[in-house]
Specification:
Elements lengths: L12 H27 L5 H22 L9 H8 L5 H27 L2 E3 L8 E5 L4 E3 L8 E2 L4 E5 L14 E2 L4 E11 L6 E8 L2 E9 L6 E11 L4 E8 L5 E3 L5 E11 L5 E4 L2 H4 L6 E3 L4 E6 L3 E12 L3 E2 L2 E7 L9 E9 L14 E7 L10 E5 L2 E5 L10 E4 L5 E9 L8 E7 L4 E3 L8 E2 L14 E8 L7 E12 L13
Antiparallel strand pairs: 1-13, 2-5, 2-13, 3-12, 4-11, 6-11, 7-10, 7-13, 8-9, 8-11, 14-30, 15-19, 16-17, 17-30, 18-19, 19-29, 20-25, 20-30, 21-22, 21-29, 22-23, 23-24, 25-26, 26-27, 26-28
Helix pairs in contact: 1-2, 1-4, 2-4, 3-4
Length: about 500
C-alpha cells in the first residue's frame, strides 16, 4: 500500500500541500492499474471495469478538492465533504488505494492465468524496477548478412534492486535478484536512414525471447519497441540485441533508447504460453492425435545428451508407401486458425549414416503447417534438399527454396519458426531462427527476416484450422530405401520465442 501523509483538521497550506502529494501518489497507483489493464486480455474485462470504477472515485475526490476555493483561514464544510463517510480524509484515501491495488492485482492475475501460469502479488511489497538508458550514441554495423549487436546501457533512471551494473562486461545485462514474473520493455531510437529493416530483440540467458521487426520507409528517426512478460529465476539475465540493414553504420540515439524490467508478481504453475508440447519422456507419442504409421516411431534416449532427454526416432522405409509416397508422420490437433500468430520449435538430429542424394525426387520433408482441404503441397514446409536444409514457404517455387543451410550430421539443430496464418500474402508471414550450438541466429528468407506470403493457400489449406507436423516423408520416385531422423521437443506457443525453444543446447 502507498504511504499517504496524514492530514490534520486545519485546512491550511500544509493541508493543501499534503493533499496534493497524496493525490500524486494516488495517480501513480491508478496509472499502474490502467497500464496493467491495457495488457490484460478478454478474461480480465470484469477486473478492468472494477479498476475503472475505483479510478473514477479517485477522480471524484480530486475534482471536489480542486473546486474548493482556497483562501486564508479554513473551510470546515468542504473538508467534511472531501472526507466522505470516513472520519478523516487520510482513511478515505487509503481505502481507495486498497481498492485500486486489489483491482490491479486481479487484472494481472487474470491476464497471466489466461497465458498459462498463475501470478500472486502483494501490495505491501516494494516495487522492483530497473530502467537503463544510454547517455551517448552507439554505432551499429550493417548486418544484411545476418547477426545481431548487443546494446550497452551506461546509466539508470532507477534501479531498485541492483539489477544493472555499469561495467564494461556487464552493462548490457539486467540480472534478476528476486524470482517472479517480469515485464520487459525496450525502446530503440534509430538515426534516420530510409533503407532496410530495424530489428530489436530481447534475449534471456543468451537466447532470443522476443523480437520486433520494422521496415523503414522514412528519412527521419524511427523508434522500434519490443516487450515480453516472462517467468524469471534468480540469476537469469536479459539483454537487448539489435539488427539493421541500412547499408552502412547506423547510430542508436540517446534519451529515447531505454531498457526496463518491472517485477509484476510471483509465478505459480507451469510455463505460460504453451499451446502444445510433445512430452516424449512422459507420454510417448500420445500427444499426437493424427499419426501415420505410429509403429515406425521409437522413443529413445538422446544420442547426445543421454538419458536426460527422450526424443522421437522416426524411421521411414520405401515400403511404407502411404498415399503415393513413403511417410511416417506425427501431427498435432488442428489448433492453428486463420489470423493466429504463433511460434513452433523442434530439434532435428541427422544420423552420421544419412545418405545425401541430390535431385528433387530425393528430398526429405521434416515439418509443415497444413490443413483442410489437404489439396496439394503445404505452403510452409521444411525439408532436407540435397546437402541442405531447405524452406519452401511458397510451394509454387519448388524446387527452388527460399532459404537453405548446410545440414549437420551427428548433432542437434534447433529450429524456431514464427508464423502468422492468412490467405493475404501481405499479412501472412514466416520467420526462422536456428541454433547450431552457438546460440540462435535469425535467418534471411529470400533476403528478408520476415517473409510475407499466403501461409493459408486457397484450395490447399485454407478451409479450416491447420496442424503442425514433424515427419519423415519422401517421393515415391526416390531412390531411397529408408530414412531415419530424430526429433526433440516439438512445441507450439503463442507468447514468446523462449517458450518453444527446443533446448538442445540449454
Amino acid at each position: 500500500m502507498a504511504n499517504y501523509k496524514p492530514l490534520g483538521v486545519p485546512f491550511d497550506r500544509k493541508f493543501r500541500n499534503d493533499a496534493n502529494e497524496n493525490f500524486k501518489t494516488i495517480d501513480t497507483v491508478a496509472e499502474k492499474a490502467k497500464t496493467d489493464a491495457a495488457t490484460a486480455i478478454d478474461t480480465a474485462n470484469k477486473a478492468k471495469t472494477e479498476s475503472a470504477d475505483a479510478k473514477t472515485k479517485v477522480d471524484s475526490v480530486q475534482t471536489q478538492l480542486n473546486n474548493i476555493v482556497i483562501e486564508s483561514g479554513t473551510s470546515d464544510a468542504e473538508v467534511i465533504q472531501a472526507r466522505g463517510a470516513a472520519p478523516v480524509l487520510n482513511e478515505r484515501l487509503n481505502g481507495i488505494d486498497v481498492q485500486v491495488s486489489d483491482n490491479a492485482q486481479a487484472i494481472v492475475s487474470a491476464h497471466e492465468d489466461a497465458r498459462g501460469f498463475a501470478v500472486t502479488a502483494s501490495s505491501n511489497e516494494a516495487p522492483i524496477i530497473c530502467i537503463a538508458r544510454r547517455t551517448s550514441v552507439q554505432s551499429i554495423p550493417d548486418q544484411t548478412a545476418g547477426g545481431t549487436t548487443e546494446v550497452l546501457w551506461n546509466a539508470e533512471d532507477i534501479d531498485s534492486d541492483g539489477m544493472h551494473v555499469n561495467t564494461t562486461t556487464d552493462s548490457a545485462r539486467m540480472t534478476i535478484k528476486k524470482a517472479g514474473i517480469y515485464r520487459l520493455e525496450a525502446s530503440i531510437n534509430w538515426a534516420g536512414v530510409n533503407a532496410g529493416i530495424r530489428e530489436v530483440l530481447i534475449y534471456k540467458n543468451g537466447a532470443a525471447l522476443e523480437r520486433t521487426t520494422m521496415t523503414v520507409n522514412q528519412s527521419s528517426n524511427v523508434t522500434a519497441q519490443v516487450s515480453a512478460t516472462d517467468v524469471a529465476n534468480v540469476g537469469d539475465y536479459y539483454t537487448i540485441r539489435v539488427r539493421q540493414t541500412s547499408g552502412g553504420n547506423l547510430d542508436i540515439q540517446t534519451s529515447i533508447s531505454k531498457f526496463s524490467a518491472l517485477r509484476i508478481g510471483t509465478a505459480v504453475g507451469p510455463r505460460g504460453g504453451i499451446k502444445f508440447e510433445s512430452s516424449f519422456a512422459y507420454r510417448g507419442i500420445s500427444m499426437y492425435p493424427n499419426t501415420i504409421l505410429p509403429e515406425r516411431v521409437f522413443i529413445q534416449s538422446d544420442p547426445v545428451r543421454g538419458t536426460s532427454r527422450q526424443v522421437a526416432r522416426i524411421h521411414t522405409r520405401s515400403i511404407d508407401n502411404e498415399v503415393l509416397y513413403p511417410r511416417v508422420q506425427l501431427a498435432t490437433n488442428s489448433i492453428l486458425a486463420v489470423g493466429d500468430e504463433f511460434y513452433v520449435g523442434f530439434g532435428v538430429y541427422i544420423p552420421e549414416d544419412f545418405e545425401v542424394i541430390d535431385g528433387p525426387d530425393n528430398d526429405v520433408m521434416l515439418h509443415e503447417i497444413y490443413g483442410p482441404p489437404f489439396n496439394g503441397g503445404a505452403p510452409n514446409s521444411l525439408r532436407i534438399f540435397g546437402n541442405n536444409f531447405a524452406l519452401f514457404p511458397d510451394i509454387d517455387s519448388y524446387p527452388t527454396p527460399q532459404w537453405t543451410m548446410p545440414i549437420i550430421k551427428g548433432a542437434w539443430v534447433d529450429f524456431v519458426f514464427r508464423y502468422k496464418l492468412s490467405t493475404d500474402p501481405a499479412v501472412g508471414y514466416v520467420e526462422l531462427s536456428v541454433n547450431k550450438g552457438t546460440g540462435f541466429e535469425n535467418q534471411l528468407i529470400n533476403g528478408v527476416q520476415r517473409y510475407y506470403h499466403a501461409t493459408l493457400k486457397a484450395g490447399v489449406n485454407d478451409s479450416g484450422s491447420n496442424y503442425s507436423t514433424i515427419k519423415v516423408a519422401y517421393d515415391a520416385q526416390s531412390v531411397r530405401d529408408e530414412v531415419t531422423i530424430l526429433f526433440a521437443n516439438h512445441r507450439i506457443g503463442y507468447d514468446t520465442f523462449n517458450s518453444v525453444d527446443p533446448g538442445s543446447y540449454a
